[in-house]
Amino acid sequence: MPLYEIWLAMNIVWEFALANLAILIILAAAVALLFGAAVVKGKPAWCVGFKVGVVAAVLVTLAGFFFVPALIDSSISDLTYWVDWANLFAVSAVFGAAAFALCWPLGAIFAGGRRPGGSA
User: pLDDT tens for residues 76-110?
Assistant: First the structure.
């Protein structure tokens, strides 16, 4: 595996992050506020929220895998090289990670003091 392909993939991710820096800062602030709200609320159900976050991350990653090529005026049939597939998975996984980071505290907040399979 030549290092050039790894360097190219890292550059693509870096340039994508720089191009969307404002969105990343807003996302980080939203995640911090959500986690802060979950802690201040009282008894957040972190385990339930974690499960909600994982489900959201998997769904968003799968959706991203099919919709990201369309967002960049491409298609899955245009992905002919393994680096293209790796970049597609990486970008989709980033969207999934963002969904996880947002849905974990939301799930913990809305689950409240409830425990899975039992009462509060």
Answer: 888 888 778 888 888 899 999 999 999 999 999 99
Burial class (CB in 10 A: 0-12, 13-18, 19+), 63: middle
What tokens appear for 104 in the block? Answer: 């974990």
Between CA 86 and CA 90 the distance in angstroms is 6
Sign of CA dihedral 70, 75, 78, 80: positive
Structure tokens at 54: 């994982």
Closest CA to 8 of 16, 67, 23: 16
73 backbone φψ class: left, alpha, beta (φ>0; ψ -120 to 50): left
Write the DSSP symbol of residue 42: S
Residue spans of the domains in the chain: they are 3-111
| Number of CB atoms found within 10 A of residue 78's CB | 10
| 32, HSE (Cβ side, Cα atoms, 13 Å) | 6
Give the tens place of pLDDT for each residue, 2-27.
778 778 878 888 898 899 999 999 99
